[in-house]
Amino acid sequence: MMSRAESALAGDGEGSTEIWRWIRYEFGGVARLIARSDTAFIAALNGPAAGVGLSWALTCDIVVASERALLVPAFGRVALLPEVGSSWALTRRLGYQGAFAFLAGGRPLPASEAHELGLVQEVVEHDDLMAAADRWCERLAALPPHVVAMAKPLLRAAADVSWDAAIAMEEFAEPNCFTTTSFQRTVREMLEQGPSARA
Predict the structure, then answer these.
(1) How many domains does the chain have?
(2) How many Å apart are CA 34 and CA 55, to the nearest integer?
(3) Chain centroid to CA 87: how far?
(4) Given this model, what pLDDT does residue 139 score?
(5) Do residues 93 and 48 both lie within one domain?
(6) pTM of the predicted model, to two decimals?
(7) What does the alpha-carbon distance between residue 110 and residue 173 come to, in Å, rounded to a whole number?
(8) CA distance 94 to 5
């Protein structure tokens, strides 16, 4: 990355547009894949997460952190700005002032504090990290395939629309779920088991 920046400053090639393309396709390409895929992505943080690694983790659908994990807002210290969608993720989780304080302060957040702020969904002992990530995979795999595939774009879009638009999206999506074999089978099983199954 540094050699690309030096090349742009020297006036070689296409200047800063070459760096823009590289960031967009190399770093942004991964973030877009995570965000736009119908598949759920789980980040397992086992130590410091900084720069683009932090950005990719924040783009994932679930973040599980080891007790040794640190979220490191190092952008400002290296004269950079938030990248690869991290400004979007942080302002939605922390609000403007919280995101600004996190980035401007530059203080690494321990996993427990990141959990309290909603930046990670679970903190586990270091040696249990991959098993915890696997448990999330098992929970997601146990759901009917359409649930994750439809809920992921619905929830991501809902972050940016009005309540009226969000409820309209839900009203269009939900009838499709009624037609699935998974839903119909679950309803039949609940009816066969009686009122206790519906509690």
Answers:
(1) 3
(2) 11
(3) 12
(4) 96
(5) yes
(6) 0.82
(7) 38
(8) 31
